[in-house]
Amino acid sequence: MGAVPADGVKQTRRDQILDAAAELFARHGFHGVGIDDIGAAVGISGPALYRHFRSKDAMLGEMLTSISERLLEGGQARVDAAPDAATALQALVRWHVDFALDDPALITVQMRNLANLTDPDRRRVRALQRRYVEVWVTALQESVAVDEPTARAAAHAVFGLINSTPHSAHLDRDQMAALLTRMALASLTTAGVLATA
Amino acid sequence: MGAVPADGVKQTRRDQILDAAAELFARHGFHGVGIDDIGAAVGISGPALYRHFRSKDAMLGEMLTSISERLLEGGQARVDAAPDAATALQALVRWHVDFALDDPALITVQMRNLANLTDPDRRRVRALQRRYVEVWVTALQESVAVDEPTARAAAHAVFGLINSTPHSAHLDRDQMAALLTRMALASLTTAGVLATA
DNA sequence: ACAAGGGGTAAACGACCGTTAACCAGCCTG
DNA sequence: CAGGCTGGTTAACGGTCGTTTACCCCTTGT
Questions:
Q1: Strand D close to A33 by CB, under 7 A
Q2: What is the pTM of this model?
Q3: Which of A56, A84, A154, A161 supports an S-S bond with B161, CB 3.0-4.6 Å?
């Protein structure tokens, strides 16, 4: 799990810790996992983590801001690269689906543990998330006829749909990707028709 | 928030506590809210809760089992009352949408705090959830041509879509219900086409 | 050769928090 | 009017857990 570790390349200890923590946070929740658990997961024990992070809160903070940045950056890039609005939307869906399938732990943590962030960290993450939603909202408005509040709600709904992936490991990766992409696009294009019926 | 309190009728103190706890758990997570917080939310303080519940875990347990029971019971009832498979699926969607819109806190807790349950409670809740999923899976297989694993994954995806409702309060209740219903049905009917493409 | 520092350890500290104990006020019943 | 539930209260206990401290090894550059 956790995005493929680049090549055979040794990832820095920080990243190793972050990956292990993400997995644990996803499974047991932020408060449900102790500093000792995280240490044990990477073969060191307990307080050694403080050689790499200022606090447990800092781990979650760094984890969530980095997810949000990657999501925003990747999404924006794909929209910019798309020739027209319709393919931009498709690219966004595929991007988010790939992300969710490759990093289910990170997605889960981002969905569930926003509340456990420190106040400044939460502000930062929320700002990034808002910008990401904004990317979706404009892509939606440009490709399907829909008012802005509906577009916003539809975006959140599709996030929920795609992010549900950690809960169902019944299909293999490619089938799952195809299914989620199809469902997401279907729901989005329908969202436009008779928007304010 | 929290399902309409029947009529003007006074709800029992237990239910009052459960409602307040649900709201708090949804907002801050199970471990993020203290026994004192829950007490304060209903005007009593701290340990008085132990006159009504055996433990904090017991509150969560009762909360989640009751949600799961209501969900299953209501879903099954609607399927039984439906004349054919297609309307059964529509009824399921509407049922789940209504539930999510009327009890956003409960839905949120059920999605996020399964891991915080005690082992026996978790087994109970999971069993109920499995049966609920089963209701959806059979309804799906009878109305759209789709293999079972795909139906299962699609059901989870639609739960994610509908349960996203707490994150977006941009639309009023009826518009939101219409939007979610439309999106859910669109994604589901599309899930069947070329299922194992 | 050696000082420096990065990265690890185990032990102690301190706060928080779920739970229990001891106590008490009102109400309803006999 | 006595006496026992019912449902509160505050204070104390105990465990868990994040964090700090003190110590140590091993590597590396001078």
A1: yes
A2: 0.93
A3: A161
How far apart are the C-alpha atoms of A92 and A181, rounded to whole Å? 10
For B:18-37, CB contacts with A below 8 A are 27-32
> Residues near A129 by Cβ (< 8 Å), separated by ≥ 6?
A68
A50-104 confidence digits (pLDDT tens): 999 999 999 999 999 999 999 999 999 999 999 999 999 999 999 999 999 999 9
Distance from CA of A144 to the nearest CA of B (A): 14
| Rounded distance between C-alpha atoms, residue A40 and residue A135, angstroms | 39
Place of tokens 């029992």: B12
| CB B80 within 8 Å of CB B95 | no
CB–CB of B118/B181 below 8 Å?
no
CA distance A85 to B127: 44
Give residue-wise pLDDT tens across range B5-37: 443 456 899 999 999 999 999 999 999 999 999
